């Protein structure tokens, strides 16, 4: 089975590309832990260009920030192998947010050819 070999930390106050895509590879996610300092919505999406806006597709939530988080609230999901992946090779992974409150956390992943 696939094992996630890389973890990226995130600490942002606006929608941000958190994992850059690689030619001929998909991003496979094993864990996500995110907390928002303020009440706002977030989504995890794939695509290219500025904040994954080109060819955008939703992985968690919608293609706009749509998962409601309370102030100082968040969510976490982890598995011993990937539980979701980008559907298009070379796509970036972005975390969108509806407000300017800090969103922090980490995502563990692996990038390989599908």
Concise overview:
The chain has 114 residues and is mainly β. The chain is built from no helices and 10 strands.
Q: Count every beta strand, where a strand is a DSSP E run of 2 or more residues.
A: 10
Q: Identify the overall geometry.
A: globular
Helix content: under 10%
- How many whole angstroms does the radius of gyration measure? 13 Å
Largest sheet: 5 strands, antiparallel
Number of helices: 0
Give the terminus-to-terminus CA distance.
13 Å
SSE run: EEEEEEEEEE
Which spans of ≥5 residues are poorly predicted at pLDDT below 50? Answer: none
Proportion of beta-strand residues = over 45%
**Mean pLDDT over all positions:** 97
Question: Which secondary-structure class do the elements indicate?
Answer: mainly beta
Structural summary, described in words:
The protein is mostly beta strands. Helix content is 0%, strand content 57%. It contains no helices and ten strands. The chain has strands at residues 6-12, 16-19, 26-36, 40-48, 54-60, 67-69, 73-78, 84-85, 92-97, 103-112. Strands 1, 3, 7, 8 and 10 form a five-stranded antiparallel sheet that branches. Strands 2, 4, 5, 6 and 9 form a five-stranded antiparallel sheet that branches. The chain is globular. It starts with 5 loop residues before the first strand and ends with a strand. The model has no long low-confidence stretch (mean pLDDT 97).
Comma- or semicolon-separated keywords:
114 residues; mainly beta; five-stranded antiparallel β-sheet; globular
List the helices and strands and how they pair.
Layout: E1 6-12, E2 16-19, E3 26-36, E4 40-48, E5 54-60, E6 67-69, E7 73-78, E8 84-85, E9 92-97, E10 103-112
Antiparallel strand pairs: 1-10, 2-9, 3-7, 3-8, 3-10, 4-5, 4-6, 4-9
